[in-house]
Design brief:
Chain lengths: 412, 148, 412, 148
């Protein structure tokens, strides 16, 4: 399988470059993925042939653009198994999607004394909007604990999710710990207590088959740019019943039904949420990205990434002084591996790896409460995608060892 | 190995300061103080100074950070001690120009050991690490009303 | 000059196509502009060489991406003569920018009894957000009248803008009437009464030299997609003093300084407004668009478009039964011409023109109160850009005449 | 001239109905009514019907719109008059399939003069204009509880 997967690398010209005189190994996929030629071409071709504003014109280009733009809703619907394309709302990305849910659904449904339950592993984007909502409404924000290997403590979840809970918001997959959370179980817990479940799918949608109905989620959001699509486009999915009652947040342009001097009526969902000219080319690119991923198969992508981790994890654990966060069993570990190398600061490690062509991230990964919880100030993170190869794994391991060697007299 | 270029960044003096930072800790007496964050990496720098007449009489820093930011803080404390606010302001400017590669000559005397960070211009992502401590001393003097 | 300007057409491959067997004449530029090759290439090259998430990584690609991303702020600053790049906030587009001003500045500054003054010619995007703000805060929304030729009635403005006025919001150039409003005069009026002035620059920034300081505006917003840039990127400019005090609206990602379990501090402006991964490639494309426009010269673009209108207007006025809205003097008319052809419905006209290769818009142009004010339900709009030629003008005139002929026994 | 293709859209029957719409106006007696907007173009259609026993006994429309939407409304009123709700529902479906080009055969009898809109499939931007009136009759029957 490795062989066949390696063919996809050819579609990513950016990977064929040297960085600091070394072959680039891009392992920062959790921050953003690279884009294959078919996606870049789809965007360019749209501008070369069909570009026009959507929904507004009777001329030929406008009609073509509108059709392509709306067709992608169907692709997204199929990609995550939504029940209707009308449940697919275009956003700027995961962060905007989560903020919209907090502001539109949250502000109209929460009251003093209600509780919002999230986890210690949330990305700031699935944390700060709820914090703000709690401040505004007088609701309480509570955090589900983690087990020592980084997985969610379901005992803690059962204690925290009660009849007071109005909203539960959880990452499907962690952007730091490499764990995938048991969403269906959490959905059952939430629903038993009359709460809705918001799922942050930023790190899952790119890497595994998503079925929002099977997950039992009420809201599911993700970003295009982490799954081959252009920057500036994301998806907010929610059950129709919620979208129907949620007030729109950005007013103007095509989201309107009729405007009088002192009042306005809005279109039906999803269009009522899409104020102003949308990122049309971004939508087209997202459609091409979904086509590309679907042609490979999401299950295959998930399996392949696991095989890389099965290669990597044992090698890392052999390096003395190297500490991996999250589960140590490769089977439970997604393609995100966060670690520290002795007392070396993650930034020094990341710079040393960069000098060897290996692009990783260092820092708090927009998860400061998690860092605090784990008692570290920062970590190094290597995150894989299907176009990474076992040679990439080897180059990473080699580079980490060389880094350790370089700093050996100092803090390692 | 391919890490020889890293020596341009992690010079011996820098590694030494990072491993054995000077003026690390806190001051007892009444003092000016300031805490700065580098939001990108989560580094924290606490800086304290005691100003006497018109010079920096005592100085200390604490917090956590990478090799570069720790070493830079350590060297900064050594270099600004007993200098006047006006002199320090000149040093801050000179250091900033040094690490961005804007002006690298004629500042040896002014910056002393801090010249060691000249090579960092090749590592743009790390410039902020080196300048954090200098930003802190500048802001502390400004807050204390010692700069025009 | 015409000759030289015509050369630019070559950079727009989309224009070299046939639509309904006729050479495409794209006159829907007010809805969205076409994109020149250098802009499309800039986006593709970014993805082929430098793509990474910004502000977050220490690796080489991340550093390159961040530098390019931030450099565009300087380009935008120079393009509109802001006083600092920190006054440049990236948005999704004009609509988002206006909504953010209403929500962030408006909600924190308005109280019951305050007044918001706009005009009858506003686009819904510069109308509905103020209507909503008025509903929420108990402020009153008032409309400045128009003169019979569509220009702003400054007498009406003087009466409506009083010490009760907190916000004045006006389009710099109308998207329907082809008029350019006297912003400096309105700014003086507003400031005399202690109000702030919000300028909707969606239809001016693409077509003339903008100097926000000379205009005297406090806020100025525009969209990239109407000025050669990709979809999904826009600019909110405001004076530092306002940006400093405005609360952010989208929480998460790089807009954060530090997060604790129950509270969060934000970065400085402009970054505090830019929650989540931004439309990075859109920003890069906007930079390329500004380079392209600046190389031509905004003054030259404005003059050239006026020369097209000087050709077109007299020809149109010769067609019996054709009514042009807005000033009839070409010197006062921007490159937007709205008209109706006898009793023919604008949609029928637009379809007939499309059959002859000419792409125009028909409808209310997101300005229903203006339609109501003028007593029409819809109009046809032809809108020009610098890549349109005098042949395009001729083809439009010919097509209108043929349309009139086709329907002659009916409603014309 | 190049407008010959326009004849596929603006057939004589359509132009005639637009110029002289049938059942244009309002009804006096108690009636079901509905107003629909086409937000894209600002068109407004008001439809009124009087249902007797199990058929449409009287019908009228008013409002403003383009040639296509006016003609389609006029033809629709002619074709549905005296039909039962169940029949009308079938017509609505057939019309929708006709104008999108999904199914164009075997519906002549059902749709009568409304068949004239077959050519509109080539003008996708205008399909909504043609379907507005049919959407209205469907919704009015639904609201009246005459459809399962
Ligand atoms: C005057 C005016 N304001 C605002 C807008 C909205 O711009 P956007 O759709 O890019 O948000 C437009 C364009 O449609 C416009 O013409
Ligand atoms: C788990 C998680 N949630 C949310 C986000 C925010 O996504 P975006 O920056 O695309 O809005 C990210 C990515 O940074 C993430 O990893």
């Amino acid at each position: 399988m490795d062989k066949k997967m390696n063919d996809y690398v050819q579609d990513f010209p950016i990977l064929r470059q040297k960085v600091n005189d070394e072959q680039l190994v891009y392992l920062d996929n959790a921050a953003t993925s690279q884009k294959p030629r078919p996606v870049i071409d789809a965007v360019a071709n749209y501008y070369y042939h069909d570009n026009a504003n959507v929904h507004r014109g009777v001329h030929t280009l406008a009609e073509r653009a509108t059709e392509s733009f709306e067709k992608v809703r169907t692709k997204v619907k199929n990609f995550i198994n939504a029940s209707s394309e009308r449940e697919i709302v275009y956003t700027k990305g995961t962060t905007e999607g989560l903020n919209w849910i907090a502001r539109s659904y949250g502000s109209t449904h929460l009251k003093q004394g209600d509780e919002i339950v999230i986890t210690y592993m949330e990305h700031h984007s699935n944390l700060v909007p709820w914090q703000q909502l709690a401040h505004e409404t007088g609701a309480q924000l509570k955090y589900i604990q983690l087990l020592s290997d980084g997985r969610l403590d379901m005992g803690s979840a059962e204690k925290l999710i009660t009849d007071k809970t109005a909203i539960v918001a959880v990452a499907h997959a962690s952007n730091v710990l490499g764990v995938v959370n048991p969403i269906t179980e959490i959905a059952n817990l939430a629903h038993k207590h009359g709460a809705v479940l918001v799922v942050d799918g930023a790190q899952s949608a790119p890497h595994m088959k998503i079925d929002v109905q099977q997950l039992g989620a009420d809201f599911f959001v993700f970003s295009g740019h982490k799954m081959l699509a252009p920057t500036g486009i994301g998806i907010l999915w929610a059950k129709s019943i919620f979208l129907a009652e949620m007030p729109p947040l950005e007013f103007g342009g095509e989201m309107i039904n009729s405007v009088e001097l002192q009042q306005t009526t809005f279109k039906e969902f999803p269009w009522k949420f899409e104020g102003g000219t949308q990122n049309i080319a971004g939508v087209i690119g997202l459609g091409a990205a979904i086509d590309y991923l679907s042609a490979i198969g999401m299950e295959k992508i998930e399996l392949y990434e696991r095989s890389l981790v099965e290669n990597l994890l044992p090698e890392l654990l052999k390096i003395e002084g190297l500490k991996v966060y999250g589960p140590l069993d490769p089977v439970q570990h997604s393609g995100i591996i966060s670690f520290n190398l002795g007392q070396l600061h993650p930034h020094d490690v990341a710079t040393a790896l960069d000098m060897q062509g290996v692009a990783v991230r260092a820092g708090h990964h927009c998860a400061q409460p998690l860092m605090e919880y784990l008692g570290v100030s920062a970590m190094v993170r290597a995150s894989f995608y299907f176009y990474n190869t076992s040679e990439d794994v080897q180059q990473l391991v080699k580079a980490i060892k060389a880094t350790k060697e370089f700093f050996k007299n100092d803090t390692v | 190995m391919t890490l020889s270029k890293l020596n341009n960044l992690y010079r011996q003096v820098i590694l030494d300061h990072a491993a054995h930072p000077r003026h690390y800790g806190t001051l007892k007496d009444s003092k000016e103080q300031l805490e700065l964050h580098n939001p990108t990496c989560g580094d924290i720098l606490k800086l304290e100074v005691i100003l006497k007449d018109n010079w920096i009489d005592e100085i200390a820093f604490s917090g956590s950070g990478c090799t570069i930011s720790q070493a830079s803080a350590s060297i900064m404390t050594v270099e600004v001690l007993h200098k006047t606010p006006v002199q320090v302001e000149k040093m801050v400017t000179a250091f900033s120009e040094l690490v961005t590669g804007e002006k690298t000559t004629g500042v040896q005397e002014l910056l002393g050991d801090a010249m060691i960070f000249e090579g960092i211009a090749q590592f743009p992502a790390r410039i902020k690490c080196a300048t954090l401590a200098w930003k802190a001393i500048y802001q502390i003097l400004q807050k204390a009303g010692r700069l025009e």
